[in-house]
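Fig. S4 source data, part A: sequence.
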Amino acid sequence: MADIVLATFNARYEHCSFGLRCLLANLGDLAPRAKMLEFSLDMRTPEAAEAILMLAPRIVGLGVYVWNARESAMLVSELKRLHPELVVVLGGPEVSHEPAGQQICLDADFVISGEGELAFPLLCRALMSGQAPAEKYIPASPPDPAALELPYGLYTNEDIAHRVIYAEASRGCPFCCEFCLSSLDKAVRYFPPERNFAAWEKLLERGALGFKFTDRTFNLDIERAAAILNFFLERCRPGLFLHFEMVPDRFPEELFALVKKFPTGSLQLEVGLQTFNEAVAARIGRRQDSAAAENNLLRLRRETSAYIHADLIIGLPGEGLASFAAGFDRLAALGPQEIQVGILKHLRGAPIARHDAEWEMIYSAQPPYELRQNGLLDFFTMQRLRRFARYWDLAANSGVFAETSALICAGLSPFNNFLALSDWLYARTGATHAISRERLRGLLACYLTERLGQPAGKAEELAGRDALAARRRAASGAGRQVRRLEK
């Protein structure tokens, strides 16, 4: 039994809910009366409702994100039909903006917008004392990180053994990229480093090896970033894996020197280029020195063992197919191990909406609100590019077909070369999902021989070397990657 249930749907089992743990850690005297439930997206609504109602709670706090908006809405509707007296409180980015037009917010009893660590306990105490607030929508001011209890002690032994451990050193972002909700919180707030170090030390002592930092701009404050890198360097051991999101054009020598010290397979740096088109970047409020970013990426690839995950976005207002292709080719020439090709999303509350009329932006009405077409990219072109992104993940980003993908992309335009493969794959399969690795291996070999004129023996040789390299990477742990699903 629990008076308060904190629940959410995670994208995958291996993803822990950092938000729920932050809420639970800050419930104070209410924490013993609360329980946390984490579901995966493949759990059916009745089973999720059953797990909650079995605990007979008075209050349910539900974390709602773009990846679980549909499942969350179905769950809230089910809970309120079964137990109308149950108080449902919503929080998370998906309901923090434009709540009035969302059915899930209409069905729920209260909606907290913003960071809820302090606002949620206050609401729970008021509800339990019979003093429910008159207002349904409750804005939460950004808390001082120094005033918050840290959540790291709530990671279980199972979490440590099998799941990604999320961590944060700061909140907020000083940049104004209009596609990102972080642009709304321009004040960067830092957690006291000594408290973080003590908490992370305990996790390491318990056997934690994989840490994904959620900071949007980890290297904004060079001194703080260097202190964290040094902390983990001093405790580096086989299997340690760290993921940081870096500002690509801000990499002084001090950081290069530290990154060089990390062994192969231990450090992944996510660098969001998003676009190389200067006019497009200026249009969406993105400040970026592309030449400096380009130089930094080259140095990171040539001088360090860090795994580089670089991001580009398809569909930004004013960027057509030729411009995106040029940007992709420019990035590919820098040699990052992974290029994450994302489709522009219109997240609720994001300022990117101001371009809708001028650039004829049309987005899906359903989460994750991806662009369907605009004035420069019609629907059919966007469909081709969506397939390109999916096949690129399967063939290139997976690391399973490294040499084969490199051969296919060789030439003046890796983008156009892989787009040709993408069109061919879709013509052959009519599908972008449920393609087994073995089937894809056969399709790639067929493409090499039928379309690129490679000898059958060459295709088989590449497939064999790719398979061997993939096995070695898996055995060493060097191929482990932590992907950011919320873009």
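Fig. S4 source data, part B ends here. Residues 456-476 form the longest helix (21 residues).
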